[in-house]
Write a structure and sequence with these properties.
mainly alpha, 0% strand, globular, 104 residues
Length: 104
């Protein structure tokens, strides 16, 4: 399953921003170029930086967006999805369900 996710996310998967671009393509029906531009703007990066694994690993960690090999105390799972939802300004069903169950 992990390989399928990496290939589906493109651009290196969660190590870079492929998953964020994929969210925009699926949820906002954006074309790939538009989705990359949107994500780059939200992260204050150039589109060409979206494939820089080293830069994006640190940025994802700093923003709490989740990383492949998680560190103790760093956001993962629903916490990371919550941060992604806030950053991209999108509605993620599992995040909304979590919010209603926890009163957030």
């Amino acid at each position: 399953m992990h390989l399928a996710h990496i290939f589906a996310s493109g651009m290196g998967g969660i190590r870079t921003t492929g998953d964020l671009v994929a969210w925009m393509q699926l949820i906002k029906k954006m074309k790939i170029t538009e989705a990359k531009q949107y994500v780059a703007e939200k992260l204050n990066l150039a589109v060409s930086d979206l494939v820089n694994e080293e830069l994006l690993r640190q940025l994802r960690e700093d923003l709490g967006l989740g990383i492949i090999i998680s560190k103790a105390g760093s956001p993962k799972g629903i916490r990371a999805k919550l941060k992604i939802s806030e950053l991209l300004g999108i509605r993620i069903n599992s995040v909304e369900l979590f919010k209603t169950q926890t009163g957030l």
